[in-house]
Amino acid sequence: MYDKLTELISNGELNEALYEFQEEFLHIDERSPKDAARLCVLEGTLWEMLCDPVSEFDAITRGLGYDPDNYELYYMLCLYYRNLNLNKAYLCGEMALFCCNEPADKKVIEGDLFSISEDPACTVRNTSIVILSYNDYELLQKNLEAIEATLPKGSFEVVVVDNASTDERVIPFLRKKQSTAPYPFKLIENSENLGFSKGCNIGAMEAEPDNDIFFLNNDAVLLKGSLFYLRLALYDSRRVGAAGAMSNSASLQEIDEKDILTFAGRQDLVRKSEGEPMWHKKTDPGTAIEIFSSFAGTRNVPRKNPYIKTFRLTGFALLLSREAVKAVAPDMQVFDESFSPAYFEDDDLGIRVARAGFDQYICTNSLIYHNGGGTFGKNDQMEESRRKFIDKWGFDIWGYSLPRTVSADRAMDFARKSGQKLRVIDFTCGFGATAAYIKNRMPDAFVAGVCATAFEAGIAAHIADDVSFGDMNTMKLPWKRHTFDVVLTEEGLISRGRISECLRAGGICIEEDF
């Protein structure tokens, strides 16, 4: 069937080929993953010839879900992005070359990569992967193995900062890795445990000065495509300064464990009560990584609109552009060391990155396993760092972090029932958490935010479509009267007159009592 489809496409018999594809895809899951991906290559080629880029992109997505090592699909993605985003085209070509074992095709890809790299519009940098090491010997091994197995050679270096590990296996292992690694590997051995912020900053100072920086916990393990899709996020536009992954264990970037275990058929690991450990603590790391890897296999793929804009990212796997680093840490003090040994240093960095004018993305098609659970006297230390954050910035970020999901869901349900594009004004905008929630689920929605202060507005502007600030009852709103479908507010926050001023006929006000 593969040969027949190839012949039909080559002969330009596109309608007949399309019919054959429709028949063949009824049975595609009966094929091996690699054969299914080969069919998707042909399907993508057919849609390209039919001038249907949306269907072509969908075919590439399906194909990489079957086989994330198919170089032809990455190359097709490279050509797809060539006139849309040159940086993304380069990254896709780089992955195509990494996965390609055909000498003739390698030469073609190398030629295209060289041509793209010579264009001044291509600004892709290599990545310095900064790993803060402290014990976790088995996970550290898997961490470094995954880096070598999933990333194109020549695109990265590794900088390991060991924070005085007490496990006697760690340092000999890292020294051996430094002498044998087939990629640049730097090792810094601290004489004492300096905590997260100081340790990461030491690594950042050792990174190549032109590279982007990827901070990766030593108990986090890359899966196929993890860093590739994070880099696509970072180069989505010149405004993006940071990108973070989804995980099984990452504050505000966490996937429901029931979704993971249902996919893997491991309901035996679902927690039956609140006090039980997370599922990955109930089994050995190797099995947990295998379970999460199988779940991630269908999600670490190209997607339309895979990004959630945010104002902070969890530091377990955080990619920063070199431009953002220069803007917020010209002295390479990327993380504020006053938060040592741990906690809230990533929240602090997020505020600084946003105030420097950069967007930050949660990349929903980049999943990274994170074992988690390291502590620095967790509860007491977290409260102490929380107080430090409040003292520094004058507010408690916990009051801004969570979206008002109940109100947002009601607003989106209203739009779906009315069949119209949602226009919502949020008088509880804060830093834009609710706006991000809505925009991720309904990308064509227009979300206007009203903030109490210019500080809030400056950060929320990276997320909401339009933002203003001031006294919410007396300020002049910059939008036309009676143009919003939904007003989101806190009960008693604004007057009924202000609500009626904003709402169109038939619109609704959703008030929450806090």
List the helices and strands and how they pair.
Blueprint: H1 2-10, H2 14-24, H3 33-49, H4 53-66, H5 71-81, H6 86-99, H7 103-118, E1 127-133, H8 137-150, E2 156-162, H9 170-180, E3 185-189, H10 195-206, E4 212-217, E5 220-221, H11 226-234, E6 240-247, H12 257-264, H13 285-296, E7 307-310, E8 317-320, H14 322-328, H15 345-355, E9 359-370, H16 378-393, H17 405-418, E10 423-426, H18 433-441, E11 446-451, H19 454-460, E12 466-469, E13 484-490, H20 496-502, E14 503-512
Parallel strand pairs: 1-2, 1-4, 2-3, 6-9, 10-11, 10-13, 11-12, 13-14
Antiparallel strand pairs: 4-8, 5-9, 6-8, 7-9
Helix pairs in contact: 1-3, 2-3, 3-4, 4-5, 5-6, 6-7, 12-13, 17-18
Oligomer: single chain
Q: What's the number of extended β-strand segments? A: 14
Number of domains: 3
Shape: globular
Q: Which sheet architecture does the biggest sheet show?
A: 9 strands, mixed
Low-confidence stretches: none
Mean pLDDT, as a whole number? 95
The CATH architecture classification of the largest domain is Alpha-Beta Complex
Question: Helix- and strand-based class?
Answer: alpha/beta
Question: What percent of the residues sit in helical stretches (DSSP H or I)?
Answer: 40-55%
Give the CATH class of the largest domain: Alpha Beta
- What is the number of helices? 20
The portion of residues forming beta strands comes to 15-25%
User: In CATH, what is the homologous superfamily of the largest domain?
Assistant: Spore Coat Polysaccharide Biosynthesis Protein SpsA, Chain A
Straight-line N-to-C gap:
62 Å
Could you tell me the radius of gyration in angstroms? 24 Å
Instruction: From the 3D structure, determine the CATH topology of the largest domain.
Output: Spore Coat Polysaccharide Biosynthesis Protein SpsA, Chain A
